[in-house]
């Protein structure tokens, strides 16, 4: 009996922890938009300047993690001004106060304290490369970030959300060369609301894409 009681208490605590993390704002709260130390605008960089997502998130098609870019990537365009007030290289906004955390990071080697917008619980395994290399665009989970000045969570990222996509993936599959083109629309979609799903079904059949709904796919 003592062991059974202890086991029940341990299970209750574990269930509570799982519940807390699974229902955290970073996991399910549509509208979650934390304040970042640098006011980075995706609308400007990915939208107006047409920068490919992979320039900053350079592991998204090769690894499970999409990767937060190192400050050196920011420094490619935003090298700080030197003692004489000029930059060593061609640079943008070298003296902007908004970029002070970036310039400080370049000088000290300390990382910028970026805040996560999308954060799955630790007991969930998600592989970005497995999705991106099969034609699932960033838009399916992250929305049109190229229209956002402040990145905001637009999908709940719950288990139900993921399973719905795995069970009916066709509308989320597009040609591989259009995965990071966030404004892409399937040909004919302006007149046929099923055009994206029909094209996705063709691509999925051609590449033998069979999303798994087995629990072990995400819970390992």
UniProtKB/TrEMBL annotation:
SUPFAM superfamilies found in the cross-reference section: Multiheme cytochromes (SSF48695)
InterPro entries for this protein: Cyt_c7-like, Multihaem_cyt_sf
Coiled coil residues, start to end: none
Domain annotation Cytochrome c7-like: ranges: 39-86, 124-220
Chain segments annotated as transmembrane: none
Listed name of the protein: Cytochrome c7-like domain-containing protein
Organism: Blastopirellula marina DSM 3645
Upper classification of the organism: Bacteria, Pseudomonadati, Planctomycetota, Planctomycetia, Pirellulales
